[in-house]
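A quick word before the example. In earlier lectures we treated sequence and structure as two separate objects. From today on, think of them as two lines of the same record. Here is S41 family peptidase written that way.
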Amino acid sequence: MKKIAFFTLLFPFTAIANPFDCKSEFEWLKTTFENNDAGFEYAVSTKGENSYKSHNAEYLNSVKKSGSATECHQHLKGWLSFFRDGHIHIGLNTDGEEVQNKTSKIHEFNELAFSQYLDTKQAEDWEGIWAFSGYKLALKKEGSDYNAYVIESSNESWKKGQIKFIIHDSGNGTHTVSYYMSDHSLRSIDAVSNLDKNHLVIGKNWLTLSRQNAKTVSAPSVNQYVELMAARKPLFEVLSNTTALLRIPSFDHSFKKEIDKVIKDNLDTILQTENLIIDIRGNGGGSDVSYEEVLPIIYTNPIRTIGLEFLSTTLNNSRMLQFMEDDNFSDEDKEWAKESYKKLENRLGEFVNLEENTVTVETFDRVHPLPKNVGVLIDNRNGSTAEQFLLAAKQSKKVKLFGVTTRGVLDISNMYQVHSPSKHFTLYYSLSKSFRIPEMAIDSKGIQPDYYIDASVPAFQWIDHTQKILETR
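And the structure line, produced from the sequence above:
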C-alpha cells in the first residue's frame, strides 16, 4: 500500500501591502472552496442546502461591512466553520500593521523593576517570569487581569513589550484567557490552572508555562511531563525493569528520520522489555509514513486500513507535481506521485481512488514476543495521522489506548494551501475523503480510549497511572 500523507496545519506569517476588498476576498474563498475541497459536498448534504444558503447570505452581508483585513479575517473564518472542525483554516498574512488588537501595541515594560518587585513577594502566585516554546514572558497583575508581556521571542512577529495573552477573572474562582496566536489572531480559552507552583497550564493541557527562577522544586513526575510535552523530537526512556516509554510529539514527515532513528537506536531494549508506553499526546498528525517503523513492534495480526479518494481538480492535482520535486520524498514516492498525477488528470471533476482497492491489508513476517503490553497515551489534541495511527495500532492484541477521546479530524484530510489573489489570505483545505464515511466516520466523534483517564488524575500522572496498569495486567 502506498502511504498517503496527511498534513497538519501550518500558519505562515508574511508581509503584504496590497489593496483590500473583503467582498472580493469572500467571493474568492467561496468559489475556491466549493470547487476544490473534498468535504464541501458532504458537509452541505449533511446540514442541508437551505442551511448553507442562509449561511452564505449572512456572511455576504457581513463582509460588505468589513473595514479591515483583520475584521474580514474573522468573517472568513466564521464562514468556514460551517463545514467542519479540522483540516480547514484561513490564515491572515500580515506584517502586523492591520492587527487591531491589544497585542499590536508595544508597551514600555521594565523587566528589572518587575524582577525586583517579585523578589519582595512572600508567596509565588501567577505573577512571575514564565517561559514556553521560544517565549519568555512577564505575567503581571493589572486590575483584575493578568497581562503577559513579551520579554523575549524566537518568533520575529512578536516584539518585546507586546501582550501575548491576558488572563481574565470570570468570578467564582474561574478564569478565561485571551490568547494571541503567532499571526496575532485571537483564540479564546476557557481554562487556566496550575500543575504546581512552577507550571501554569493554559487550556486543558494545551500549553504549559514554566516559571523561571523558581523558589521551590517541582516533583519529578511534573518535570517529566513538562519535558515530554515541550519536546520537539521523539524521545525514549526506560521507566523501570519492565516498562519503557516512547514519546512521539508529531508525525510530521520531516520528523520521520528522527522517529526511525530513535526506534533503531533503542530497538534491542524495546524488544526485551515487557511493557511499552507510546505517548502521542498533543500529536496533531503529519504523514503516515512517519509511524511505519512503530507498527512492526506492536503488530499481532493483519492491519486493515480503509482507503480514501481524492477530488481531482487542476488546483488539487498540482500537489502531486510538488511531491515530485520534494527532497523529503524517496524516488519510489516520487514515482507514485507521477503516476497518481496522470490518473487524477484523466478524471478531472471526479473523486479518484489512487489505490487498487478500497481496503488494504498490511502484514509483517513475525510477531515479537515483547513488548507484551503496549499502552498508547491519547488526548483531545490528537487528530489526522495521529488518529490514523490509532486505527492501525488498536487492531493489535497488545495495544490498549489510555486517556480521553481524540479530536476527530480524519475523514476529510490531506491538506493543501493556496493564497488569495491579493495575497492577504491563505486558504488551507482538504483534498481527500475517506471510504469510512458514513458508516464509521471519525470526524466530530473521535476515537475513544480503552482506559478512560478522568479529570481526577492530573496530566502529569498519566504515565505513572498507565505504567501501574500495564505492570499489573
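Notice the following. The domain at 221-413+430-471 is CATH 3.90.226.10 (2-enoyl-CoA Hydratase; Chain A, domain 1). We will return to this example when we discuss secondary structure assignment.
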